Amino acid sequence: MYSATLILFSVATAHAGVVYPVLIESRSGNSKGAVQLSKDYDIDLEESSVLGDSLYFSEARYGNVNHELMDTTDIRNSVYENSEHKASFTITEADAGIEMEGYLNFTHGIKPLRIHGKSGRIPHKIFPLPTPEDSIHYEIPVEERSDESLPPKSECNLQNGSQASNKPPACWNIPV
């Protein structure tokens, strides 16, 4: 009984963040169309402005560096943005529908689940993005600090014009 309840709860929780995006073609010449995530939520597609016509790509392997100038036409045709929602994502057309991956806004992202739903469309998971407080650690653990770096020079560390080698400093400077 306990395992059945747990399975039902996990399925219900996972289902809440699953959508089936549909690409809506534009009828006007100046729009790229829209993506409908649910019956109440559409995102208008705008051509992304993050890539130029070409991209300089450098790759280093085994001491050899290769440089290549790449045409970004194919990449630009799959990268979209929405300035109203602050969204940026890629859309790839597949046999079963579209695969959409990226940011929907500042707080949520979307990615395909790589399984096919019963409707013939690809299910996608909407997930919360980490906040800066979650991902930035201001304190570095002692074991990750480098012992090779020299302590900052200050008047507190100097005694008689030279740095004391066998005595601890009289005062400590704590970087802020």
TrEMBL record:
Q: Where is this region: Disordered?
A: 143-176
Q: Which UniProt keywords apply?
A: Hydrolase, Metalloprotease, Protease, Signal
- Give the signal peptide as a residue range, or say none if absent: 1-16
Q: What spans are recorded as compositionally biased (Polar residues)? A: 156-166
* Entry annotated with the keyword Protease: yes
Give a GO molecular function annotation for the protein: metallopeptidase activity
Q: Which domain of life is it from?
A: Eukaryota
Q: Which GO terms describe its biological process?
A: proteolysis
Q: Under which name does UniProt file this protein?
A: Putative tick metalloprotease
- Its source organism is Ixodes ricinus
